[in-house]
Design goal:
With 310 residues, the chain is an alpha/beta fold. It has helices at residues 43-53, 68-79, 122-125, 146-158, 175-179, 188-195, 202-213, 253-266, 271-285, 298-309, and strands at residues 6-10, 14-20, 34-41, 58-65, 87-90, 96-102, 108-113, 135-140, 162-166, 183-185, 219-223, 229-232, 237-240. Helix content is 34%, strand content 23%. The strands form 2 sheets. Strands 5-4-1-8-9-10-11-12-13 form a 9-stranded mixed beta sheet, with helices on both faces. A 4-stranded mixed beta sheet has the order 3-2-6-7. Helix 1 crosses helix 8, helix 6 (188-195) packs across helix 7 (202-213) and helix 8 (253-266) packs antiparallel against helix 9 (271-285). The termini are far apart. The structure holds alpha-D-ribofuranose (RIB).
Length: 310
Amino acid sequence: MQKEKSILVIGSINMDFVIKAERVPRTGETLMGSGFSTIPGGKGANQAVAMARLGGKVIFAGCLGNDSLGQKLRRGLEKEKVITDYLTVDKNEHSGVTMIIINKDGDNSIVLDAGANMTFSPEKADPLKEILAEVSIVLSQLEIPIQTVDFIFSEAKKLGITTVLDAGPARALPASLLQRTDIISPNQTELEALVGKQINSLDEAKKEAEKLLKWGIKAVILKLGEKGSYLLTKRDKLYFPALKVKVVDTTAAGDAFMGALCLSLTQGKSFSEAVEFANLCGACAVTRLGAQPSLPTPEEINRLKGKLEK
Ligand code: RIB
């Protein structure tokens, strides 16, 4: 029997310091907030947990600081059965931390001090070459050095492994990385950074997404929040409306989406089936506070699906 292949997630791992407030304070203003909590997060770690919770075999690679936050974050991943053999520690840096404000509508504002995440160099990622042959998809984001993402994607492409890039946080990308990317998923701000242009409507976003295909990218999947999502390949131009749920906190909804998308693709689902499932998973995540605690189980996704079909 063939051994089940793993999904490799290479990316950030942070502790999120979260406060709820009516709105983001103005410069010089102190606002009263509530509900302070420290919650495991980081785009990379969130995406790894999202897949593991849905039953995927996931390896997470990244870098923690040599501190108690790092130990807690590692234990959290292990509890979710994410393989952490390639999760390194930098003894001179603190673990990645964020300050997050959740406003009354459930939208977030995030400040990130990436700390040890930014020390995850291509050299530190080099040992991953020994396991790439057992991997079906490599998924990354942009909260670690871009050279490391480029390095691992280039190694993955040598073996014909599918590379998936969550284009957040927003930044312009080198041509080399775009050429090594099979599937890219930006939100609107991230798409603006990729194409170097302000986007004012859904139609414009769809048109600008076409520009990314010229790099050899096979699928562009736009995450447009309350405007839904959009799948673009050479064959498909499909729009998926947003699902109507009660929004508590949008943090990690995109990560839930990416995790579900990649897992579905490894299970042989088509792009449109994968995006449909990813939409459900993202919608589930916005109904709960925090990053990793909000990532749904298959049962929760089925429950939401049932409710929405009624
Ligand atoms: O995508 C949400 C994540 O972005 C948060 O968990 C935070 O850590 C930042 O990395």
